[in-house]
Design brief:
96 residues
Length: 96
């Protein structure tokens, strides 16, 4: 009886862990897709000039996740960080 109960608890635990992992993975993929869509839209409409706050505001995704996404894209495309006349930092991406 105890062995059967332990097996069922183990199965439920593994199933629960897999469900949480799958949900987190799905959420991450959806966030990345939304960030990519907003990123490329901003890239086109802002002549390659993107700020973190713009990407956060338009994507509605947590700032830390958005920051990591933007840093990855900046490194991949060779963007440079610059500062405008108001002292705001932005990423300047190469022209499309």
């Amino acid at each position: 009886m105890i062995t059967l109960l332990a097996e069922r608890l183990l199965i439920l635990g593994v199933a629960g862990w897999l469900a949480v992992w799958f949900w987190q993975r799905l959420t991450w993929q959806q966030q990345q897709q939304k960030l990519a869509a907003v990123f490329y839209d901003l890239l086109r409409h802002q002549n390659g000039k993107i700020t973190l706050i713009q990407l956060v505001a338009q994507s509605q995704i947590e700032p830390e996740i958005t920051r990591l996404f933007l840093m990855e894209k900046a490194q991949f495309f060779g963007a440079v960080i610059d500062t405008d006349n108001d002292g705001n930092d932005y990423y300047q991406f190469p022209p499309i």
